[in-house]
Amino acid sequence: MVRPGSGSLPGIPDAFDLHRSSFFEVLxxxxxxxxxxxxxxxxxxxxxRASVVEGxxxxxxxxxxxxxxxxxxxxxxxxxxxxxxxxxxxxxxSSSAIAISGAAGPAMELAKVFATELEHYEKVEGEPLxxxxxxxxxxxxxxxxxxxxxxxxxxxxxxxxxxxRTGTGRIFEYDPAGGRYVATDQAATGSGSLAARATLKxxxxxxxxxxxxxxxxxxxxxxxxxxxxxxxxxxxxxxxYPIVAIIDADGYRExxxxxxxxxxxxxxxxxxx
Amino acid sequence: MAAxxxxxxxxxxxxxxEYARKGIARGRPLVAVExxxxxxxxxxxxxxxxxKTSEIYDRIGFAAVGRYNEYESLRVAGIRLADVKGYxxxxxxxxxxxxxxxxxxxxxxxxxxxxxxLEVELLIAQVDGDGPDEPPIELYxxxxxxxxxxxxxxVVIGGDTEPLTTALEAQWSAxxxxxxxxxxAVGVLAESAGRELRADGLEVSGLDxxxxxxRFFRLRGTELDELLDA
Lengths: 273, 230
Description:
The complex is a heterodimer. Chain A contains eight helices and 13 strands. By secondary structure, chain A is an alpha+beta fold. In chain A, strands 1, 4, 5, 6, 7, 8, 9 and 10 form an eight-stranded antiparallel sheet that branches. In chain A, α6 runs antiparallel to α7 (about 210-225). Helix content of chain B is about 40%, strand content about 25%. By secondary structure, chain B is α+β, with helices and mostly antiparallel strands. Chain B is built from six helices and ten strands; from the N terminus they run αββββααββββααββα. Chain B has helices at about 10-25, 70-90, 95-115, 160-170, 180-195, 220-230, and strands at about 30-35, 40-45, 55, 60-65, 120-125, 135-140, 150, 155, 200-210, 215-220. A five-stranded antiparallel sheet of chain B has the order 8-1-2-9-10. In chain B, strands 3-4-5-6-7 form a five-stranded antiparallel sheet. Chain B has one domain: 4-Layer Sandwich (Glutamine Phosphoribosylpyrophosphate, subunit 1, domain 1). The chains are: A alpha+beta, B alpha+beta.
């Protein structure tokens, strides 16, 4: 152990600590009560299961100069709609974002730990992780969540960002066991993903400008909401719209409500009879 | 069997303090200058990557002089403390005072108990404070023995601080802009060094309350040179 002085100082990191730059590992070691751990025991009872809030459809689309990541606003618990204004898209850092589906509590926690992890690494090491490195780190965190997934609290994130070295947008998909898959032009996850994918496959074009990708994302979310009861459509009455974020050379930014509404109205207008 | 000779506690403390002071004085001093919306750190640093200043959290910055390996460990420990606290409670709950206290405890414990005291001096700064207990700008100076001083306007840490403090005393004024504060800080360093200082030999960073969320900034390369020439 190499420490300044004789090592009498708690909290001072060891020199060759493999997890020196990882916030997740610091938490696991120094504040285990803050990390979801192996709970053991049987899967959740049906009653309990029905009261767990679930987030549904999120998706991402690659464009020529960036990537669009979006999600609907519905959360369900059993066969009830529990929220109409849930956020499922979170900035992970200035050039990447994480979108979540599955058990909402652990999923939002995952997004929060992951964002802290990236910032922690950047501060300790003096430079940010590569996009590839970020996506691998997230895979490890999803894998660590597996025991909870086996009890029924499945969390499946979607990760998208711009690689600062190449300036191109990339998307990474995950499975509940921590499998990581690179998506070529689009990806969707959550209960409405089947319907969303059908639309994404038809319209996604990695050579198109970012505006086209935004339209594709909103069209796919609208289709998912039409086919899947757990995916929320745009709530024009309460003015609750999907969260749509763009990541390009200028970094992460979310479209404001007016911009999203204009896009939604254009999509709906083309379907009006 | 080795005999334990009696050493008077006063003598022991004196020797340890002298040892730490000597170690710290080997490095170049670092200045921190308050401006209207924040704090600027500036020091001579010929390397472009081995930093003496760092971001700790949204509103908190860190600056150190002395032994690199020692303050680097302390810096990482501070980031850990801040990140864990901000994660478990809320981002606004992370503030400079408890962090400065932790550093003070760590340095104090090392000064008394370790085989050699840590040869470092630290600065913890916080901007954008609100409320009666949080002034807009806080600046804590923590010495090798754990003693802690609440500084205002400007502070110089490291060896040979006297000429820099005198120069800042004469030239500092309230309500400086960020760029003016950078020029003032680098100006007094250059004056004391007796030569011109350019971006490649300087480390300039700081905290600016007008920035979004992460207030820490670093100035380097042509951006810094242009600012110094302005």
